[in-house]
Design a protein that fits this description.
- This protein is an alpha/beta fold.
- The chain folds into two domains: about 5-90, Uridine Diphospho-n-acetylenolpyruvylglucosamine Reductase, domain 2; about 100-150, Uridine Diphospho-n-acetylenolpyruvylglucosamine Reductase, domain 3.
- The chain is about 25% helix and about 20% strand.
- The strands form three sheets. It has a four-stranded mixed β-sheet with strand order 1-2-4-3.
- Strand 5 (about 100) and strand 6 form a beta hairpin.
- The radius of gyration is 17 Å and the shape is elongated.
- The chain starts with a helix and ends with a strand.
């Protein structure tokens, strides 16, 4: 499936997506496809900037239905560039930034688009810290719910 065909099919099939679909011909595509490691320069056929779990499910189903590679990008920081792909669908979680800290249970629920700097700031307000990540721009998507410890 060509990039143009993929974008057109996505706009027809993903009606009701709460987030945003970004295709190669759209303004802002180059910014949307950019990842932290500037040596990675991939060109996805579609970027689905998801606003919630339903959007994520729809984007995955679209990629599967069209036999396209799928990459998931949390905060955009992956040295190997695994949050993007050529000719496929990038599921961009950058809009999913909610952080819920439960100081009594000593847990935190983290949206897939958060970075460790954001998680650290939220947990630190309660005298807690997560035992993960040392680089502030690293995405926290690998751990949507984590235990925290006293700082």
């Amino acid at each position: 499936m060509s990039v143009t065909t993929t974008a057109g099919a996505a706009r027809r099939e993903l009606v009701g997506l709460a987030g945003e679909l970004i295709a190669p011909d759209d303004p802002g595509y180059d910014d949307a496809r950019r990842v932290y490691n500037a040596m990675i320069d991939k060109r996805p056929a579609l970027i689905a900037r998801c606003a919630g779990p339903d959007d994520v499910a729809k984007a995955i189903a679209f990629g599967r239905d069209h036999d396209l590679p799928i990459a998931v990008r949390g905060g955009g920081h992956n040295g190997a560039g695994l949050g993007t792909c050529d000719g496929g669908v990038v599921i961009d979680l950058s809009l999913l930034r909610a952080i819920e800290v439960d100081p009594q249970a000593r847990t935190v629920r983290v949206g897939g688009g958060c970075t460790w700097a954001e998680v650290d700031a939220a947990t630190n307000e309660h005298g807690l810290a997560t035992p993960s990540g040392i680089i502030a721009t690293t995405a926290s998507a690998a751990s949507p719910s984590a235990a925290v410890s006293d700082t």
